[in-house]
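Worked example 3 (structure in, sequence out).
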């Protein structure tokens, strides 16, 4: 994630010092207290520092499984301007986990609309993911097509995701092998690429490949932090369900 930093080393008892304490905190309660301490300095906290303090407060609420508070804080921070798309995305993830799907889609649409060029395809991809997870395959495919127009290094990933959406929703799919090989050769083959490779293999009946890739995806994310777990919650669930089905056959 892009970062904003204080321009000079902060003195003691300032919002900037509280921000550093929040970033270095070993636990959500300490992070929360530090962020709240910095935000309490109304007369001296600057716009950029306030946004970063609010994001640390958001992180602490997620770590404490306080998703309603996390969503509210992310929305409050997004309205301030800096890193707006990142914060709308944060709000969308929390709302999706709360089961508030229309609100999650609205927040992610705002993330895509306000994203700078270099993050536009990422935020559109996030919107397509939410649309797919709620069962709107046509909407997800339209959004992925739009994302590909501004995509650079992640085009192979987006094509593979579109293929996965088609297979998952029972739609006709073409160029399966070419799409898979393109993703394998891309910088995105690991990480989320493993999930897509595994789910594509699962849907086309390649059990060995599905087991390899989904197993690798789950191992890679076995000990992720709570914030990343929130982002990948549905993918982790789907990977486990697919592997469970493979092992029970």
């Amino acid at each position: 994630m892009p970062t904003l930093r204080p321009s000079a080393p902060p003195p003691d008892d300032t919002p900037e010092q509280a921000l550093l304490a929040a970033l270095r905190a070993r636990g959500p309660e300490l992070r929360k207290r530090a962020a709240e301490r910095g935000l309490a300095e109304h007369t001296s906290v600057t716009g950029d520092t306030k946004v970063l303090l609010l994001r640390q407060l958001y992180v602490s609420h997620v770590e404490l499984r306080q998703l309603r508070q996390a969503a509210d804080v992310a929305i409050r921070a997004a309205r301030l301007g800096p890193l707006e798309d990142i914060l709308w995305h944060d709000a969308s993830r929390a709302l999706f986990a709360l089961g508030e799907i229309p609100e999650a889609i609205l927040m992610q649409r705002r993330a895509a609309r306000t994203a700078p060029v270099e993050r536009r395809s990422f935020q559109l991809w996030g919107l397509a993911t939410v649309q797919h997870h709620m069962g709107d395959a046509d909407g997800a495919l339209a959004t992925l097509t739009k994302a590909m127009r501004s995509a650079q290094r992640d085009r192979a990933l987006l094509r593979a995701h579109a293929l996965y959406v088609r297979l998952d929703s029972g739609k006709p799919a073409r160029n399966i092998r070419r799409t898979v090989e393109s993703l394998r050769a891309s910088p995105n083959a690991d990480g989320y690429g493993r999930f897509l490779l595994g789910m594509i293999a699962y849907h086309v009946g390649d059990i060995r490949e599905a087991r390899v890739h989904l197993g690798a995806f789950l191992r890679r994310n076995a000990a992720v932090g709570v914030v990343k777990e929130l982002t990948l919650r549905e993918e982790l669930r789907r990977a486990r369900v697919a592997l469970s089905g493979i092992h029970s056959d």
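Notes: The longest helix spans residues 47-63. The two ends are 41 Å apart (CA to CA).
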